[in-house]
Protein: Thiamine-phosphate synthase
Amino acid sequence: MDTRLYVITGHAFYKGRSLEDVIAAAIRGGADCIQLREKDYTGRQLLEAGHVLRRLTREAGVNLIINDRIDVAKAVDADGVHLGQGDLPIEVAREILGAGKIVGVSTHNVEEALAAERAGADYIGLGPMKPTQTKLDTDPVVGPAGVLAVRRAVQLPIVAIGGIKAEDTAEIIRNGANSVAVISAVVGAEDVETAARVIRGIVDRERGNRA
Ligand code: TZP
Ligand code: MG
Structure:
């Protein structure tokens, strides 16, 4: 599951714009994976948003991942799910979703990264890179230095997350992350498309520079 700019939904940041407008702009700017994550949505609201995102992502040929909810992922025929440390285990998600689906896991250190790899995850989220107002219950900061340690330990694609802005991106990619995942820096931007394009450009440049 190679991705370069992984954009996660966050309706609180939309400034009155629609989900469809915000995510379509992010995709035009270079988002190549979209995750539906709305902690305060009902199942019904997630399903509705999931259908909108499935249409947009399918048209654009980008992956759609659903956070936490394997049932919603199955219902909208998403490309996969993203699981936290407390969510259902990877093998259960695979059993429910069937073959060929993407399963990502949130990790916060080398031990969790190794466990996710052993359990057969397709990629790991790693964070937070910085403190963030978007997820206040967040774990201790891993930081860009933590990416180096995890990169040495696992082969899996690393998607860095948490408080990432354009100016943080180069160091994170240089330290071995494949991709950055962002909420506020893209979906909360005045110009969503440009914000995505700037971050995507940095990822492309730094990955191109990688030995
Ligand atoms: N997981 C760890 S930090 C975070 C999540 C979902 C929030 C990321 O949001 P932002 O606005 O990019 O800091
Ligand atoms: Mg979760």
User: Anything to note?
Assistant: The two ends are 20 Å apart (CA to CA). The chain has a mean pLDDT of 96.
